[in-house]
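#onboarding

Welcome to the new folks! Below is a worked example of what a typical request in this channel looks like: someone posts a single protein sequence, and someone else replies with the predicted structure as tokens. Don't worry about understanding the tokens yet, we'll cover that in week two.

Example request:
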Amino acid sequence: MKALYFDGSLKVLNVPKPRPQGNEVLIKILCSAVCNTDLEILKGYMGFKGILGHEFVGEVVSKSSLLAGKRVVGEINCSCGECFLCKTGRKSHCPNRTVLGIFERPGVFTEFTTLPVENLHVIPDYMSIERAVFTEPLAAAIEIFEQVQIKPSQNVFIFGAGKLGLLISQVFRLNGCEYITFDSNSIKVKKAHSMGIHARGLKTLKSHEMAEVCVDCTGAPDGIKSAMSHLYPRGRLVLKTTVADPEKINLNQIVINEFEVIGSRCGAFEPALSLLEQNLVDPEPIVSKVFDFKDILEAIDFAQQPSTLKVLIRH
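Example response:
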């Protein structure tokens, strides 16, 4: 089968079809999406080499599985289930885990992949694959509210109107709080406005404007500095950005201002699918372009352009 392989350079290779192990099933990839993490891996993030990609919709083709023929999305962390962290509800931090297309596990920019059955979630028959492929990043957006109690009376600054930032903005809008999403890219700000999101250009943000909660989802090394500089003392700083070359920050400011810093990563799929089913979050305007898998190298190039939002791949 063909796969997009990274080993310091990107190439499309013929690789063996994977064989499910243990409680895994074989999944035919129907649709995948390019995440900023994929682009950071190309810069050296996680030192990953192998088949890229972790956001997908697929069809289970293992005939012996109860899910055979079902369309599914999949959680990307594959944990051991036996360690202390797994048994205390922190499977996504299992020290023995592999991570789909990110760490020690081949990804989904290919024809077939394998995942444990417990990682899979069936999508409704009426939901399009172009909508369902947003389940994983939307789960990451919702995770903020699993970690932090944010009152509707608190104001929030969201830094970054990219593909994740626009999902996070929609989730905050549902919360009812006063939020503003900032970005230095005017095209992304206009896209946010077209989606009914409160957004402004980063240059319009004055030094005296402050928020109780600041979220960094810029995908840029210096995003954390912008967020910290507009956070009230004892405010909450939520970090969503992971980059290959992180910025050095002044930890004294965290101590002096008594900031509460929350790292935020993966989230639960069930509430994400629920929001998509109820049309409470609309991801489709975020799609910049859809490519066929045969053009995946072109798709990755397009995804790296500054004004590009979500790029989807038809398999």
